[in-house]
Amino acid sequence: MKRFIYFVVVALVLALAGCSSDRDNILKVYNWADYIDEELLVEFEQWYKEQTGEEVKIIYQTFDINETMLSKVELGHEDYDVVCPSDYIIERMLKNDLLLPISRDFGSTPNYLGNISPYIVDKFNQIDGNGKNANEYSVGYMWGTVGLIYNPKYIPDNEVMSWEVLRNPAYKGKLLMKDAYRDVYTALLIAINKDALDRGEKDVNTLAFDVSDESIAQVKDYINTFKESVAGWEADFGKEQMTKELAWLNLSWSGDAQWAIDEAAEIGVELKYAIPETGSAVWFDGWVIPKYAKNIEAARYFINFMCMPENALRNMDMTGYVSAVGGEEVLENMQDEEFPPIDVTYFFGEGADSICVNPVMYPQKSIIERCGMMHDAGTEKLLRMWSRVKGDSASAWTYILICLVFLGLIAAVIVKYTKNYYRRQRYAKKRKKKNQKKGN
Questions:
Q1: DSSP string, 69-128
Q2: The pLDDT of residue 147
Q3: d(CA 172, CA 225)
Q4: Reduced to 3 states, what is the DSSP secondary structure of residue 141?
Q5: Among candidate residues 166, 191, 178, the one with its CA nearest the CA of residue 251
Q6: What span, in angstroms and rounded, lies between the C-alpha atoms of 347 and 349?
């Protein structure tokens, strides 16, 4: 209720701001839905005043797809001060001159941007900014992988080590696909080129740029071999279907996987997540300051604030996604002896070659080395391919599923805030349990 009242007050501030040309004390943040610990928004206002002596009020709005955000900035010239696009959209915004550089000079305030993992910095260096370095215009926020959520009661662990599991006719009607053409294309293109990768003829970084007609046709043909088994092409309902055992296998994102695993455990259902050994895709979201921003100073401080280790941990606890922030404090908090030790030196550096962390959140180094980053290339060709594949694959089960999902979405609106409350409580208990283990 307190947060509701807070956002009502902020909405009134926004209305008043619309009547004035002075935006110095307002910070407009545009982020993905359910992608932050919203209590941090209030805390930032106080922290900003302590650091600068200036007042600021946050206007916080959310979007569901990258293209909605991009359209508002590029076509509508919306004056958002901070937005959170995905890697390929950062690439597009750089090419279209829609971003402002982010200064690292905060005076007497510490520069927390240096907490970003070297792995994330390296990946952002691979963004094709048409001559611009993405690390000068964006700061990593969250990241993850594309893989398979599966129910081990129906699907053996060893089978999900290969993308061939998608082609098993035994799972017809129990397979869901993330409706994200770029993610699916990148993952399957790497899988198709396994032999060339093994021989060293290709590498995942250059392969991720490949949108040739030949490669698109290969991926299309591969999807066509199993599309009759697909029960639905989902944007968000897949994890719910998995927890209810209405589906057994879901090509999805690691963040959704962790959410589904936690939710399913609450009702006694076991779910797992795997990245096939043949390779997959890795994705990133980052903070940027759009070209039409009005409060650049507060925007810089907001991004800096989000890179503080304690705030990164809170955002992870609330959302289930993995922060781009590395360092000793994050590593210490993320260790859990429930998991076997793995090599995560790529993210945390030397000394992290045998660490007990959740492999859904931090995959083994040998696996992550086979994951390619998505890029803003061949958009129209990929969309045409994707439309053709999906257009031919609807089944009766698909339409039934769509109806069920529609009803589910109505219910979801009602229970959304209740679920967020219990999610916060669940993660708080996990954190308390972890701290108690360390105390012993």
A1: HHHHHHTT----SEE--BHHHHHHHHHTT-EE------TTS--GGGGB-HHHHHHHHTS-
A2: 98
A3: 12
A4: strand
A5: 178
A6: 6
Domain 144-279+370-403 is classified in which CATH homologous superfamily?
Periplasmic binding protein-like II (3.40.190.10)
Q: Are 186 and 382 in contact (CB under 8 A)?
A: no
Instruction: Give the chain's mean pLDDT.
Output: 88
Residue 158 has pLDDT above 70, yes or no: yes
374 phi and psi angles, rounded to 5 deg: -80, 150
pLDDT in tens, 292-301: 999 999 999 9
**Does the structural domain 2-136+286-323 have CATH classification 3.40.190.10?**
yes
The whole-number average pLDDT for the span 385-397 is 73
Closest to 36 (Cα-Cα) out of 124, 121, 141: 141
Cα(85)–Cα(148) distance, integer angstroms: 24
Instruction: Tell me how far apart the alpha carbons of residues 233 and 256 are, in angstroms, rounded to a whole number.
Output: 15
Quote the tokens at residue 210. 């490949």
Phi and psi dihedrals of 101, rounded to 5? -65, 150
- Which residues, including other chains, have CB under 8 Å from residue 374's CB and lie 6 or more apart? 86, 87, 88, 182, 183, 186, 208, 281, 283
Query: Which run of H or E residues covers position 317?
Result: helix 309-319
What is the token pair recorded at 259? Answer: 């959410």
CB 160 within 8 A of CB 276: yes
Give yes or no for a contact between 322 and 116, defined as CB atoms under 8 angstroms apart.
no
DSSP string, 319-331: HS-EESB-SHHHH
The amino acid occupying position 302 is F
Six-digit token string for 349 = 């550096």
Q: Which two tokens stand for residue 352?
A: 């992290």
Where are the CATH 3.40.190.10 domain residues in the chain?
2-136+286-323, 144-279+370-403
